[in-house]
Recover the amino acids of this structure.
């Protein structure tokens, strides 16, 4: 069982997140334009020669592509906002949960209030993310400050070793 996310004061830097993703062996990042992580993650990833960035039109497309990469022994990270996660429910259910694919999702919690846990948010869409992940049996980790980044690489490795999905909830905009 995943513990509820707790809001903590501090900052979240993109560089350590990118380093953790590399340490986990990820070579491909799949994303649609993402306002929440654009500056601190997506922009640096776009110019990083260690990654292949695959942009898609819709979030649910990232799951089929990530599954195909997995069959080719490539590790992928899906970088989306929580609204795209909600939009992709059927793809997540089928590919990640029923077919037990190691879908590694980094979900930006766009407009989450600083210092407020997702389940305490005034925004309905943010409040339901963790309960949905729990019901679907998807391991989740709340990444809100630099100290939380240490959870990323082990979570991605476990997802690939055990062929199960994982979600990293990005609580604040990485800088």
């Amino acid at each position: 069982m995943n513990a509820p996310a707790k809001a903590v004061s501090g900052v979240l830097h993109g560089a350590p997140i990118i380093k953790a993703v590399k340490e986990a062996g990820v070579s491909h990042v799949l994303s649609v334009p993402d306002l929440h992580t654009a500056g601190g993650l997506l922009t640096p990833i776009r110019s990083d020669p260690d990654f292949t960035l695959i942009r898609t039109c819709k979030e649910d497309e990232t799951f089929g592509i990530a599954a195909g990469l997995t069959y080719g022994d490539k590790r992928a990270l899906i970088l989306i906002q929580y609204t795209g996660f909600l939009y992709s429910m059927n793809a997540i259910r089928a590919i990640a949960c029923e077919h037990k694919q190691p879908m590694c999702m980094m979900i930006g919690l766009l407009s989450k209030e600083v210092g407020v846990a997702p389940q305490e948010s005034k925004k309905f869409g943010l409040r339901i993310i963790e309960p949905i992940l729990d019901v679907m049996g998807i391991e989740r980790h709340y990444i809100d400050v630099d100290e939380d980044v240490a959870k990323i690489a082990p979570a991605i490795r476990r997802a690939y070793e055990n062929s199960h999905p994982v979600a990293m909830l990005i609580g604040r905009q990485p800088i």
Q: What stands out?
A: The domain at 14-170 is CATH 3.40.50.970 (Rossmann fold).
